[in-house]
Amino acid sequence: MSDKVYQKKAFIGGEWVESESGERFEVQYPGDGSVIGAVPACTRKDAQKAIDAAIEGQKALAKLSLVKRIELLHKAIELAKKRDEESSRLTCLESGKPIQQAVWEGSTIDGYSWSNFHVAAANIKSHRGMTLPNVTEDSNNKRLIHIYEPVGVVVNISTFSYPSEMPNCTIPYALAVGNSVIVKPSSGSPFSSILIAEVLEEAGFPPGSINVLTGAGDEVGAELVSNTGTQAIGLFGQEPTGEKVAQNAAMKKQLFAIVSNNPLIVMDDANIEAAVEAAVGGCYAHNGQSPISTRRILLHKDVHQEFVSRFVERTQALNLADPLDEKADVGPVHNSKVLETALNHLEDARNKGAKFLTGGNNPKGLYLEPTIIDEATGDMLVTQEATPGPVAPIMTFENIDQAVELANSTRFGFQIGAFTSGLANAYYLAENIQAGSVYINEATNCWDEMAPFGGVKKSGIGRMLSDWTFNELSQIKMILFDLGKVKK
């Protein structure tokens, strides 16, 4: 565990402040339960202050030229590079993911989290309106123009699994458009969001354009969602949270990414070695707690034996260890509630006849052994729900139609991975599976900042990343000129 204990404050209107209540809470390291640091326990009053500050901050930000906003984004990137090691280490300490995976995410030089700043700064230059043809009357006098304007105050609510990436899926895009942002990070992982705010403050973004509130979701989050001063909600979280936020957000713009039970399909003509590696990464990376982790493996009966044999061997070779250990492949789940849910789902599978091929035990603390469950059925919690943790339930199918039926037999539809060497199979799966993204010969936990990211059904609302985020965080205004009615 790190010797450094972080004592941080909330960021409201350009100032680092304590909570209105004066109360603070501690944040623990999932690796051993030691204290990482403490932050303010913000209240509804703090949230109201942040909203007022964000309204003023948005006005100041919108007055800046596009060139200036891009300049500030680039400056933030350069300043962040000076805190590369700290950012990666914080990501590890907060989330409990192995340090090497934390570097992939949190590195300000090479991590995918901070690459969002590059994408936002580059793509905002091409985010523009258009002139529309007049098709309602026989006249050459009408000019119809649509333009994009900032939506206003954008709220980002994040869960613990990606403490750096989830805020940065919203922040740079919102700022580029001219929106202000209020970040409400998970109470278990607030420090990465605070680091981002520190960098943006140093870069020179106007006071109030970026704010961070630490505290309970039913206190701070509830106020941010329901208050009329906010206009858009970006959420990464669990299904119950998403449903509650959607109900309280009323007519606000919503961008939700919900933790889902994403399937990996392996056809009889698949490259088995590549499929096994995708399953290892999809099921166990980020300790199996990503919104896009692989949570169901669907195998064609003819490849079942070969796949399972290789998958068990690879799983048993993984090192379950303290996340700060450079040799760790899998770390602990994030908190006791997550562990309890995972263990309940495993017990349910045992009671319903599942065959445990490896793992299934809780050796100590928050650590859960990487677990493969064969002969899983559709009535088990491990296949119905988004089981948190390094758990891999396996189901078998006989033909491609059964594969599609199994993949779609859920209320979720975020990301699907499918392995096949046949072009016809690839197209059939891609066109018939209900999901926001279908990855052919790739794992489920894959995305690209240049592509739309989001789910269907209970897996989310809207699309994030690249130009898609700009559209979601903008208002479209139509302007009509009738040049035939000007004074002669």
Could you explain the architecture of this structure?
The protein has 17 helices and 21 strands. With 488 residues, it is α/β, with parallel strands linked by helices. It folds into 2 domains: 277 residues, Aldehyde Dehydrogenase, Chain A, domain 1 (3-Layer(aba) Sandwich); 179 residues, Aldehyde Dehydrogenase, Chain A, domain 2 (3-Layer(aba) Sandwich), CATH 3.40.309.10. The strands form 5 sheets. It has a 7-stranded mixed beta sheet, sandwiched between helices. Strands 10-9-8-11-12-20 form a 6-stranded mixed beta sheet, with helices on both faces. It has a 3-stranded mixed beta sheet with strand order 1-5-4, with no helix packed on it. Helix 2 packs antiparallel against helix 5. The termini are far apart. The model has no long low-confidence stretch (mean pLDDT 95).
Helix content: 25-40%
Unreliable runs, pLDDT <50, ≥5 residues? none
Structural shape: globular
CATH superfamily of the largest domain: Aldehyde Dehydrogenase, Chain A, domain 1
Q: How many domains comprise the coordinates?
A: 2
Oligomer: single chain
Backbone structural class: alpha/beta
In angstroms, what is the radius of gyration?
24 Å
**Highest CATH level, the class of the largest domain:** Alpha Beta
Average pLDDT: 95
Q: What do we call the CATH topology of the largest domain?
A: Aldehyde Dehydrogenase, Chain A, domain 1
**Name of the CATH architecture of the largest domain:** 3-Layer(aba) Sandwich
